[in-house]
Write a structure and sequence with these properties.
The protein is of the alpha/beta class. It contains 22 helices and 13 strands. Helix 7 runs antiparallel to helix 15, helix 12 crosses helix 13 and helix 13 packs parallel to helix 20. 44% of the residues are buried. The chain binds 6-O-phosphono-beta-D-fructofuranose (F6P).
Amino acid sequence: MSKLTQSPAWLALQAKAEELRAQRVVHLFAQDADRPARFSRDAVGLHLDFSKQKIDQQGLDLLVNLADQQDLKGWRDRLFGGDIVNNTEARAAGHMALRAPASVAMPVNGENVVPTVHAELERLYSFVTKVRKGEWRGYSGKRITDVVNIGIGGSDLGPRMACFALAAFVDGPRTHFVSNVDAAQLTALLRKIDPETTLWIITSKTFTTQETMANAHEARRWLLRSADESAIAKHFVAVSTAHAEVARFGIAAENTFGFWEWVGGRYSLWSAVGLPIMVAIGPERFRNFLDGAHAMDEHFRTAPSISNLPVLMALLGVWNNNFLGCSSHCLAPYSQRLVHITAWLQQLEMESNGKHIDRQGHAVDYATTPALWGDVGTNGQHAFFQMLHQGTTLHSVDFILPVKAEHDLADQHRMLIANCFAQSAAMMRGKTAEEVREELKAKGLQGDALEAAIPHRVFAGDRPSNTLMLSTVDPYHLGALLALYEHRTFVQSVIWNINPFDQWGVELGKQLAQHVLMAMAGKDVPLDPSTRSLLGRIL
Ligand code: F6P
């Protein structure tokens, strides 16, 4: 047994979970008229209602004790102090410095990095302004109409998600994203764009990622089919920390935008990796995006745990995962604009906390991050919500709802809101056999037919959810929302005593892909029999 699972705070929570197992959430509401107000919090324009969670005040206090016991305060100080929190790579994690205003000092490894961050932002803003104003022209003198980001993982998911989420604020060139080594994605795009008016952003922290490099080389060949080498300088820019690799690809230093090794890929959209977002919405709105995230940083850094949104969401996640037995966590944004947030959050959470080894190198004896998945409401209701309501496994849900729509179809927005609230209410309250019986009787059903119909229509209820509301999906509130989830991930890593900033689990597959490629080229490399057999069929 680990120290964590034997610790007083953990054992007290186990006992609390036992006690609450017999309770129904609807009864918790019946016992406490103030529950909706007492189990909700506001910060940075976001409203978190967690009253539908199976938790009471004592349980909440015990969760806060767990955070204290795991030294959340100390870890938060180390994170914001720019200390080495990524122990396996000996790196700090300074993504908060990327969104700090110029007047704020933020150290990383003992040095205030905010001036360096702002100097790079200025370079980016100056470039972006030229592209948006049409001063930056393609090789034939035409203005840029399309900007394509080639990158994968953290070098793709954040900008892709934000550009789509903020479509109502886009007044720059069209943005496109190519990530997959499956060239179906690139070739489909090439059919729609014009080499004379397309700008390529090659985004890769390492500038060695196989998929990105394959797509980048192909994009370059495509350009050179209609232009000579001098066109590269007009049509290719790079975002990377690996300046030597960028130069080897043929992109000049003045067309390279940098970030730093203390920015993890999945925490990088606030840096030069956000270049497609800047191109799409302009520097001023990008600054609003950073400001929203910075305001959430300040809230996370200073608010007491009991009213701290990221801390509470993290602790409730731990509660559901480690004490109530939830099998996974589902994200249900009731906003078409947030359709790509799940993929971004999957990388954030599962690459950060999908680990079974603690900071000291020991295997853990508790669950770490659950699978995270989901889709926008109302689409998900007609796909997987059946399992959420009546499946044999328990899943927690974050319902995310922008209060104001970007469009003026008020009736449809009202329907969206009604569906969002209805689903979380249904998950909580369920429907008893008695209720079903009365309903069916009123419809004229009787006897055996009535009895046979009842079990299929009963809902157990007590399925936990948060409702997170933001006034609207604008740059400021989107920034705050994303930073909220980043810090939630960090807090959970502290509770589970794992390093959220490395990702060794992705390495083996990358190595083996090289082996398979070598085998395909006729080299004699050791492969397991199954892989050899699969390859045999293809060859
Ligand atoms: O393979 C995982 C990963 O390293 C992610 O952590 C990262 O976001 C992605 O690949 C892309 O890496 P890069 O920006 O170096 O191309």
